């Protein structure tokens, strides 16, 4: 298999308390899968949950931050080796299809034929999925989380300025990405990070990194 990245690459969140294996790779795919399962219910949650810049892929820093809560924690060598194993096209980014394909293949650095089949299967699975949440589901969750009363807006379509300001914690008349995600993690029926990210992309119509009242409504 290809040589994993050098220890000098940015993986500051990895621990060095666990010694890597003396023989063979620092970590096997099955070992990684088991540790990943300590945090993520599904492999589909990894990239949508962990990407910070909305580009639908993880760089080594995002990957390291994403894996810092798994147990046992990854060593630096294990982190860098697993990142390289998922980075199929060696562009320094791991996409959801790459992650799913490598997991389906059963090993890091699978041969070209096996990887091609796994990538095609992952792409087909991703294309068959519907949206993480519909606007009606989102409306229902908002409605369930808003207290009843004459001064309360009942549906997203009737959202008042006062309700928008309730979410706008710093009062700058827009919802920044962090405000947006924090607000919907605290609904009566919280959104997953993947659902919140899907809605963020839909509502942040102009891609400026903030949601206005008009966009939200």
Task: Describe the structure in your own words.
The chain is mainly alpha-helical. The protein is 46% helix and 4% strand. The strands form two sheets. It has a two-stranded antiparallel ribbon with strand order 1-2. Helix 9 crosses helix 10.
Short description:
It contains eleven helices and four strands. The protein has a two-stranded antiparallel sheet.
Topology of helices and strands:
Elements: H1 29-36, H2 46-50, E1 57-58, H3 60-66, H4 76-86, E2 94-95, H5 96-105, H6 112-128, H7 135-145, H8 161-167, E3 175-176, H9 177-185, H10 193-203, E4 210-211, H11 213-216
Antiparallel strand pairs: 1-2, 3-4
Helix pairs in contact: 5-6, 9-10
Characteristics:
217 residues; mainly alpha; two-stranded antiparallel sheet
Q: Could you state the oligomeric state of the chains shown?
A: single chain
Shape: elongated
Computed Rg: 20 Å
Q: Could you give the count of β-strands? A: 4
Question: What is the structural class?
Answer: mainly alpha
Number of helices: 11
- Physical arrangement of strands within the biggest beta sheet: 1-2
Could you tell me the mean pLDDT? 75
Strand percentage lies at under 5%
Please mark out the parts with pLDDT under 50 across 5 or more consecutive residues, or reply none: 5-21, 148-158
């Amino acid at each position: 298999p290809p040589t994993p990245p050098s220890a000098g690459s940015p993986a500051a969140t990895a621990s060095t308390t666990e010694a890597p294996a003396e023989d063979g790779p620092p970590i096997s795919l099955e070992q990684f899968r088991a540790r990943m399962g300590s945090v993520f219910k599904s492999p589909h949650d990894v990239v949508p949950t962990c990407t910070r810049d909305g580009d639908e892929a993880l760089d080594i820093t995002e990957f390291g931050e994403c894996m810092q809560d798994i147990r046992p924690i990854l060593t630096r060598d294990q982190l860098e080796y697993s990142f390289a194993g998922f980075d199929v096209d060696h562009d320094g980014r791991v996409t959801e299809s790459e992650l799913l394909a490598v997991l389906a293949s059963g090993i890091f650095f699978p041969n070209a034929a096996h990887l091609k089949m796994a990538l095609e299967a992952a792409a087909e699975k991703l294309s068959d999925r519907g949206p993480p949440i519909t606007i009606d589901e989102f409306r229902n969750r908002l409605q369930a989380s808003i207290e009843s009363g004459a001064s309360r807006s009942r549906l997203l379509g009737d959202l008042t300025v006062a309700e928008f300001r309730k979410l706008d914690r710093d009062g700058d008349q827009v919802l920044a990405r962090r405000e947006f995600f924090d607000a919907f993690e605290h609904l009566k029926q919280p959104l997953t990070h993947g659902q919140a990210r899907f809605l963020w992309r839909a509502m942040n119509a102009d891609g400026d990194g903030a949601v206005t009242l008009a966009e939200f409504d």
